[in-house]
Amino acid sequence: MTELRTFRAALVQMRTGRDVAANIDAAAKLIREAKAGGAEYVQTPEQTSLMELDRASLFAHIVEEERDPALAAFRELARELKVHLHVGSLAVKASPDKAANRTFFLDPNGEIIARYDKIHMFDVNLANGESYRESNTYRPGETAVVVALPFCRIGLSICYDVRFPALYRALAEAGAEVITVPAAFTKQTGEAHWHLLLRARAVETGCFVLAAAQGGRHENGRDTYGHSLVIDPWGRVIAEAGIDPGVIFADIDLAEVAEARRKIPALEHGRRFEIKAPPHDGAKLHLVDKAS
After folding, report:
1. What is the pLDDT of residues 21-49, one digit of tens each?
2. What is the rounded distance in angstroms from the CA atom of residue 232 to the CA atom of residue 250?
3. Residues of the chain whose pLDDT is less than 70?
């Protein structure tokens, strides 16, 4: 680690549709706006390049990672802008019948320095009749990831992961100072739980939480909550978007992580009980060290 302990973060909020090229263009415009505002780190939301619930339509559009046009465009953009670009997630073909909901973390040279596949699948029936079965389409990930950058360590997660606190404690215990939660939260669950869950994850871990979101009524008829958030390690909201596409900024001071953990050293206290049954969340942890 270097002595640099502050950085400017930008979160890109989108309303992704079904036209991949149009979504790439919309994201690129907002990423450029983020860079113009001084951001060194830029995060886009879950499903940046395509919002599609119909399985057949999704598979008609997605390809393997090495052929994905959005990933190629974002790699070139990161290289051009010289920014750490965190592509919240793209749907990429993982096998003939399964996709991966995959984060890509790009360095200022456009190199992929980390990947993370969403671990927890959103298989739910909501009270308003909405029903989601991500496991029918997506293959869940098995590995939690922390990226060590020159200015901080960043733990990766995606959307529904936020409901599983064991993942976030593992990321924090592996050295994460910033937790990221790019998301496409439904409007119904977002109104009830979005702020609550993200603030809880910040307080539990003593981390900053950065969560870029999808917002509004999408082309496929889905309503997402928006309200991209930056939360400090004490659980305070320090930047928040509304419902529309745009960019929000926050200056992150990592000294606040150490201060929060000094006041409430929960990570040092560890587990005081025995778990006799194997834990449900048994994902491995992977550290990507790009700090040198």
Report:
1. 999 999 999 999 999 999 999 999 999 99
2. 10
3. 1-4, 123, 128-131, 271-292
118 is catalytic: yes
* pLDDT of the residue at 280: 47
Beta bridge partners, 214, equal 14
Among 52, 134, 152, 159, the active-site one is 159
What is the largest distance, in Å, between two alpha-carbon atoms of the chain? 53
Rounded CA-CA distance 257/249 in Å is 18
Domains and CATH numbers, the chain: 6-269+278-289 (3.60.110.10)
As given in the structure block, the two tokens for residue 47 are 């499903």
List, for residues 97-124, the tens digit of each pLDDT value.
999 999 999 999 999 999 999 999 876 7
Whether 186 contacts 130, CB under 8 Å: yes
Residues 278 and 161: their CA atoms lie apart, in Å, by 19
Q: Are 171 and 205 in contact (CB under 8 A)?
A: yes
- Would you call 80 a catalytic residue per the annotation? no
Choosing from 35, 40, 46, 187, which is the catalytic residue? 46
